[in-house]
Amino acid sequence: MTKELPTAGDQRRSQLLRGVLDLCLLSLIAERPRYGYEFIEALTESGLELVGEGSIYPLLARMERAGLVEPFRAPSPSGGAPRKYYRLSEAGRAELERGRIVWQGFTAQADRILTRTTHGGTTP
Known about the structure:
The protein is an alpha+beta fold. It is built from four helices and five strands. The protein has a three-stranded antiparallel β-sheet. It is globular.
């Protein structure tokens, strides 16, 4: 099986996601505690399949050092070795709320600019 080369659209989506991936992870943890691979599954199910383990684990480690997430070990449902799960700390909840406000304001401003023009030129 060969991996397809990324398109220009994939590259742009990847750049956009890089700036908001931490908020996506915090939001997923806010739903319920998760372990590493569950993040990749949840992001893929949401249409953000561009994220791999090489992006997730270093970011989780940074968020742990910053006190935004609290790791804990729990038995694997499949009976394997215990897994490292992450839950939000109070600081993580506060960061998620601040991040959501910034993201919503940013996307609203960017949307105003990006929708001002049409394919044929500026709108009246």
